[in-house]
Amino acid sequence: MEMIKRYIKNNKGRFFTVLIFFIVFLVLFIWTNNNYNIYKSTIAKVISLENVYDKTEKGTNDIEEKYYIQTMVVKVKNGQYKGQQITLKNSYSSSMLMNEKYKKGDDLFISINENSSELSGSIIGLKRDKFIVLLIGFFVIALVAVAGRFGIFTLCTLIANIVAFIYFIKLYVSGKDFMLINVLMIIFFSVVTLLILGGFSRKNIGAILSTLITTFLIFALYKISLAYTGDLHYELMDYIAGPNDLENIFLSGVLVGCLGAVMDVSITVNSAVNELVNAAKSITLKQLIKSIREIGHDIMGTMINVLMFSYIGGSLSIVILKIINGYNFQRLIQFDISFEIIRFLVGSIGIVSAVPISACVALLFFRKGMSKNDSVANNSIADVNDSSRRR
């Protein structure tokens, strides 16, 4: 208890900021539990329900799946029929692949059939706004509690990037050139994220330049490889419903997907060079390159794995469902995983390229602080290491 009191005393500003966010999200959560009147669609709360087994059917791989019928009594919470009770039916399977299972207390969007003599309706879907507010609240409070004012800066960059992303999508829908929008989007994300988080400094300017050079290098390499190998079968991508600009849409996804990893590598290398030059004033070019190489080795492997796990996580559920439903592995790689593999490989090339590019940019920005005397540099670095050990 004494430790908690000491922590609060030493971090009063952060504690009160977290407390304010907690109160705000608590109020929002309570409001989203009772905000039925802001919706035009009819909402009803499940008062009681009964689950009854219906049948068992075999799938494509002879896997048995059980089906159930839910009979539920719901109370309308808004609109013309507010306060009235309706009996609804819902069918769901044990896998719940194409349907949902509901429980008592759930808020449902429903469609009321006004033509029948007795009031009836059908379920449209679950009202999820309170769960979204809860998740956002946990995220924001945890971020501010751990990172303090830098957490608030991170939230600012997220909000700015989300607003910009929506704006850029609207530009594309209105008929603007998609590749121009993509270029502007990448520049905006890079500049805004790094400047808000780190301010206007040499290391951040270096990180922005490194990010943009690396990203546009990836773009050039991708275009060159397509020129020699031919186009991909973009029409096989998931959720494609019309003759859109498929190549540019896919390329945009690849570039934006790896942008975060490239930014992380760029700022890490530029920050490290900045710290080394400031800490060891007489560091030589040789020593600096050696340090950058070690840093690159440390971050390269982890960032590539982060990228791989991100793409695996995004497609894992679909891949498993397709395997269960009879897809063979060769067909899966050819028509589904191939796009994820390309995204991963292009992103990995970006991460690997970001290390030497960031190193070159950082060396250009911080070359004035370097020494030509190796012996003096070694002594300076040793002094820095000794002082850090004593701490």
UniProtKB/TrEMBL annotation:
| Membrane-crossing segments per the record | 12-31, 131-148, 155-173, 179-200, 207-229, 249-277, 298-321, 341-366
Cite the entry's keywords alphabetically: Membrane, Transmembrane, Transmembrane helix
Q: What is this protein called?
A: YibE/F family protein
